[in-house]
Amino acid sequence: MFFERFLQWKMLERRPITKYTFRQYRVLGKGGFGEVWACQVRATGMMYACKKLEKTHVKKRRGEAMALNEKQILEALDSRFVVSLGYAYETKHSLCMVLTMMSGGDLKFHIHNIGQPGLDKNRVRFYAAEVCCGIMHLHRKSIVYRDMKPENILLDDNGHIRISDLGLAVRLSEGSLVRGKVGTAGYMAPEVIGHKHYGLSVDWWGLGCLIYEMTAGKSPLRQKGEHPKAAEMERRIQHQPLEFGEKFGKSVKNLCSSLLNKDPSERLGCLASGGKDVQDHRFFRKINFRMLEAGLVEPPFKPDASTFKINH
């Protein structure tokens, strides 16, 4: 009986992956190249998020290399803190990547749309610690993420996070740096804006922006509700000192200041010990990173299932 079932499973594994492998449910989100749908593997009942890249949009915006790059990078990763690629297939009109289902919303929603802007200290610490682990996994693979922002950090049903949307990520050749004004206005590091060559440093700046926004309820160097032009935002990032309000305790203020150092050679995370220096910061003294990486730390917040429920 067991052997028969095993053979059935092996037959299933050998079937080509097509759109008929999945049941499709509602749209979870929309992006520049297409939509993300909730889907279910018919054979196993497992839920995933299917990122559909419309071929016409991809070609129009010359995004073929970007789409292929994201797929190849996802295939190389294996971390509980970064979305995983379960399947990939194409249809007549779309390129489809079937990814980890994250149905608890994104951090931008949690920071700005539930109660007062910002999150409590325990949640800030927990999410920052998990993001730090995700960044370190990417960096061990010589991958620079380059697009750290709250809407790219997703929560699962239990309250754990994963880094998503690796379309702008790039793999560094040994000892090399890259150059390119890539990312989202307001979250790009000074060296990116200044058209300098850079490496892993930009992701630690991104973590600093994320921690600042989770704490303050607004992004650094921008007032709540303010929408400065790109040139003004770039000027502030390169030259304006940070301001910290009353929501910042000593340890989180020090951590943000160290991560948001405008000089990448002095930025926390960019020194000899890399991400270990970030994990050793006193802000994280209550975090057992070994247990966190094993998935044994209980999240301080569980998303309300009804808010982000998938309609079958």
Structural overview:
The active site is at residue 147. Residues 22-284 form the Protein kinase domain. It is an enzyme of class 2 (transferase). The structure is a single chain. With 312 residues, the chain is an alpha+beta fold. It folds into 2 domains: 22-100, Phosphorylase Kinase, domain 1 (2-Layer Sandwich); 107-293, Transferase(Phosphotransferase) domain 1 (Transferase(Phosphotransferase), domain 1, Orthogonal Bundle), CATH 1.10.510.10. It contains 11 helices and 9 strands. It has helices spanning 2-14, 55-60, 64-75, 107-112, 121-140, 190-193, 201-216, 230-239, 250-259, 275-279, 289-293; strands at 22-30, 34-41, 47-54, 85-90, 94-100, 143-144, 153-155, 161-163, 170-171. The chain has a 5-stranded antiparallel β-sheet with strand order 1-2-3-5-4. It starts with a helix and ends in a 19-residue tail after the last helix. Mean pLDDT is 90; it is low at 6-12.
The gist of it:
With 312 residues, the protein is α+β, with helices and mostly antiparallel strands.
